[in-house]
Structure formats: C-alpha cells, structure tokens
Design brief:
Blueprint (H helix, E strand, L loop, with lengths): L1 H48 L2 E10 L5 E9 L3 E11 L2 E6 L9 E3 L5 E9 L7 E9 L8 E6 L6 E2 L5 E4 L6
Parallel strand pairs: 8-10
Antiparallel strand pairs: 1-2, 2-6, 3-4, 3-5, 3-7, 4-6, 7-8, 9-10
Length: 176
C-alpha cells in the first residue's frame, strides 16, 4: 500500500509540476506579446509624430461671423495632409468646418517642404472661442505606412497620445 501511495504522489506531483511549467511558459509568452504590442504602438506613434510640425497659424475673421484658419506646417515625411479645425466654448461648438460646402481634401506634401493649409469655419453659436483645435490627418503616400491624426489644441499643455493612435500637442500662440 505504501508503494502505491508513493507512486500516486509522484504521478500527481509530476502532473502538477508540468501544469505549473506550462502556465509559466504561457505567462511568459503573454508578457512577451504585450511588450511587443507596446513596442509596436510606440513605433507607430513615433511615426505619426514625425508626420508634421506646425510652424505658425492664423485665425482671420470671414464673412457672416465665420473664420478662416491658415496653418503653415513642415511635413516630416512625404504623403498627404488635411487640416480640420474647430472652435468652442466648454462643450459647445462656436466655429465648425463648412462641411456642407467644402470637402476635407488632403494636400500632397513632401518632407522638409513647408506648406500652407487653409480651412474655412462657419459660426454656429454666438460668443468668443475659448478653445481651438487644429487637427491634421497624416496619410502615407501609398498603401504602406502609418495613418494618424495630430491635433494641436489650445487647452493642452504637453504632447500626449490621444488614445486612438494619434497625438495631441499644445497649440502655439497665433502668428500676427
């Protein structure tokens, strides 16, 4: 009886040891996969970050209370860039893009060659704009590369990921 008990204990120990080993390997693989995903996300974010730099911008009044945003950007890579803009106060929009009359057409850009982008905004509420956001959609020149959005926002104090694969940066003071 003692020998059979010892044999059962040895078999159970071997099975439990194998299970612990398998779980340890799986856990290590999960950690490695998570680290690889984090490295990939960081590389993609760095690629999006290199898309462009906002050199200067202006917000000029337009007819019927609207405005025109001009943004001078320095592309960091070849591709296409489109500008979208929005001005608000708290949770209310004051200035929005003229989506009904203007398509968001990306401009073809080349790395290191400054380009001036323009976006017309229409007024939807009275009052002053307390927050302004300039969003740049960055597309690669072809099917390969990273698509992303870089938003320059007047309420942001430091560059940070937006949680959707893009970046939010502080909006520099308006050029005069």
């Amino acid at each position: 009886m003692r020998n059979s008990t010892a044999a059962v204990v040895l078999v159970v120990s071997a099975v439990l040891g194998s299970a612990v080993g398998v779980l340890g390997v799986r856990r290590q693989r999960m950690h490695e996969a998570a680290a690889a995903r984090e490295r990939g996300a960081a590389a993609r974010l760095a690629d999006v970050a290199g898309c462009l730099t906002l050199l200067d911008w202006t917000l000029l009044p337009a007819t019927e209370g609207g405005a025109v945003v001009h943004a001078n950007v320095l592309p960091g890579r070849d591709g296409r860039v489109a500008l979208d803009a929005r001005g608000g106060r708290g949770a209310e929009d004051v200035l929005v893009p003229e989506l009904q009359t203007e398509r968001l057409v990306p401009a073809v850009v080349h790395a290191g060659v400054p380009v001036l982008l323009e976006r017309r905004l229409r007024r939807v509420r009275t009052g002053e704009v307390e927050e302004l956001a300039l969003r740049f959609s960055c597309r690669p020149p072809g099917p390969q590369g990273s698509f992303g959005v870089i938003e320059y926002n007047s309420t942001t104090v430091a560059e940070a990921p937006d949680g959707f694969g893009g970046l939010v940066r502080p909006l520099p003071p308006v050029a005069h």
